Amino acid sequence: MYPFKNVKLAVAPIAWTNDDMPELGAEYTFENCIDEMALAGYVGSEVGNKYPKEPAVLKAALDERGLQICNAWFSSFLTTKPLEETVEAFIKQRDFLHALGAKRIGVAEQGHSIQGLMDVPVIDQKPVFSEEEWHRLTTGLNRLGELAAEKDMKVVYHHHMGTGVQTTAEIDRLMEQTDPNKVFLLYDTGHLVFSGEDHVMILKKYINRIFHVHLKDVRQEVMETVKQEKLSFLQGVRQGVFTVPGDGMIDFDPVFKVLSEQGYEGWFVVEAEQDPALANPLEYAKMARSFIKEKTGL
After folding, report:
1. Which of 10, 22, 40, 109 could form a disulfide linkage to 269, CB 3.0–4.6 angstroms apart?
2. Domains (range + CATH), the chain
């Protein structure tokens, strides 16, 4: 067992209602989602597309169920749009999350991203940033990090399939060219394994800058199909490339071992987007909850 003193367990609503493909889980309401999160034994959530936009309304609903918001996705367009546009949207998201008591803002660069395109092969046609785009991205992220710090919050960068920061080399460059006191890393097991990276090596290398963790598993046979048949990210999700920890190919023992030994504090978020018609969200949330409890005692 790998003990953790100051870690809380959350689950992402994307298992119930998919932000990129709203038809997946269209039948689930916000209330269905948070009721089942609490029933499965979680104490936190990230923000989904059906969540109330008023912090007081959202907080009241979550408080009733013993849940709190730990983070929310933020799409930056630092490589393709004026910095001011991203800054304006970021401040709005920052203030929303701050009002809910969250300490992390998960930023993912969406300039040139293909993650939301249904027919573009995710492996073969991922974007590659130019030198100028890298400069705009890293300087822009430093600025977002400064804005987050104004509210005692942290920017955690979310490496993601189908974007310009997906591979080990790209994560290395992002970490090297951003201020370690302003920009941190969101570590996502599923995206690293799907991309073919050594997820444990990256965890060890950047453990001092990892301030948010997504626990996601991968079905190896589906991943191989995505690569062989040149499927898109969304097609892969529909076919079930992702699942909850303990249900796929990833060995989580070394992940928990490193995080425990290095004294990681914060949130573990179970995030496994699947078609809820094929993978009942409550059942899979419970499955992940049991697996994590067995491994960590949480």
Report:
1. 10
2. 7-296 (3.20.20.150)
Residue 210 near residue 184, CB atoms below 8 Å: yes
- Residue 69 contacts residue 46 (beta carbons within 8 Å): yes
Q: Which amino acid is at 3?
A: P
Burial status of residue 112 (CB atoms within 10 A of its CB: 0-12, 13-18, 19 or more): middle
Per-residue pLDDT of the chain (298 residues; tens, 9 = 90+): 898 999 999 999 999 999 999 999 999 999 999 999 999 999 999 999 999 999 999 999 999 999 999 999 999 999 999 999 999 999 999 999 999 999 999 999 999 999 999 999 999 999 999 999 999 999 999 999 999 999 999 999 999 999 999 999 999 999 999 999 999 999 999 999 999 999 999 999 999 999 999 999 999 999 999 999 999 999 999 999 999 999 999 999 999 999 999 999 999 999 999 999 999 999 999 999 999 999 999 9
Task: Please give the helix or strand (H or E) that residue 8 lies within, else none.
Answer: strand 7-11
Q: Based on C-alpha coordinates, what's the Rg of the chain?
A: 18
Q: Is 46 exposed, middle or buried (0-12, 13-18, 19+ CB in 10 A)?
A: buried
CB 52 within 8 A of CB 30: yes
Residue 13's φ and ψ, nearest 5 degrees, are -70, -10
The model carries a pTM of: 0.97
